[in-house]
Structure formats: structure tokens, C-alpha cells
Write a structure and sequence with these properties.
single chain, 138 residues, 6 helices, globular
Length: 138
């Protein structure tokens, strides 16, 4: 048995809830903090970060509840405001796109490097597959 095989045997699969919690803490929260930083926002405490995350969740929920037409009109207005501010501040339009791309690539690199993250993703995907299978059977 090789050292790598022994290490793989020692890694215990998490429950779906543990996997979700782990991914939330180690991927979602980190990418969110990086995204905030790209806008010049740097939460100083865990409590402040929690408030930003809560606000982002509520904004996402609000956007999801709006009709497609309203969401489209709203996003056009927000997009125009961002473009105008970028022009006034001298910020290239594609700067934020490349920063978001970099955050996604960074998160993907962490997935490759961490067996805990990889196992958490596998656990969640397996649980999802089980739910889909059960729904098709019943």
C-alpha cells in the first residue's frame, strides 16, 4: 500500500450538511470576500461580513422574485450606472470581469489542491444524485 493510498483511506467522507457547511466556509465565503475587495469593501469583523452576506442573499432573493421584465429593466439601470461610474473613475470596463474570472480560477485551484473540498463536492453531488433517483422511482 502506497503512502497516497493510505492517505486516501484515512480521509473520511462528510455528511451532506457537513459538506455544504465546509464548502460555504472555504469557498463561497472566500470568493465573496474577494469579490467585495474588488469593489474596495473590506469587512473588518466576522459580524460585518455576515451582514454583507445576509444583504447579498436578500438582494439575490429579491432579484429572483422579480419578473423577468422588471429584473431586466432593473439590471439595465444598474449596468448603466456602473458603466457611467466606471467612465467617471477611469476604470476599464473589463476590469471587474477579469477580477471575477480570477476569483473563480482561484476557487477552482483550491478545489484541486484540497481533498476536503473535493470530498465535500463529491458528497453533495452523490446526495443530489440519490434525490434525483428517488424522485424518478417514486
Amino acid at each position: 500500500m502506497t503512502v497516497q493510498t493510505k492517505q486516501a483511506d484515512q480521509i473520511q467522507s462528510p455528511t451532506p450538511q457537513q459538506a455544504y457547511d465546509f464548502l460555504f466556509r472555504n469557498l463561497h465565503a472566500q470568493v465573496f470576500v474577494e469579490k467585495l475587495a474588488s469593489y474596495g469593501i473590506n469587512p473588518q469583523t466576522e459580524d460585518e461580513l455576515a451582514h454583507y452576506m445576509e444583504l447579498a442573499g436578500k438582494l439575490r432573493q429579491f432579484e429572483d422574485q422579480a419578473t423577468v421584465k422588471q429584473a431586466s429593466a432593473h439590471m439595465d439601470l444598474v449596468k448603466q450606472a456602473n458603466q457611467m461610474l466606471n467612465e467617471q473613475l477611469g476604470i476599464p470596463q473589463n476590469q471587474f470581469d477579469s477580477e471575477e474570472e480570477a476569483a473563480i480560477k482561484s476557487a477552482a485551484a483550491r478545489v484541486i489542491e484540497s481533498p476536503d473540498i473535493f470530498n465535500s463536492i463529491l458528497t453533495l453531488k452523490f446526495a443530489e444524485a440519490q434525490r434525483l433517483f428517488a424522485n424518478q422511482q417514486g
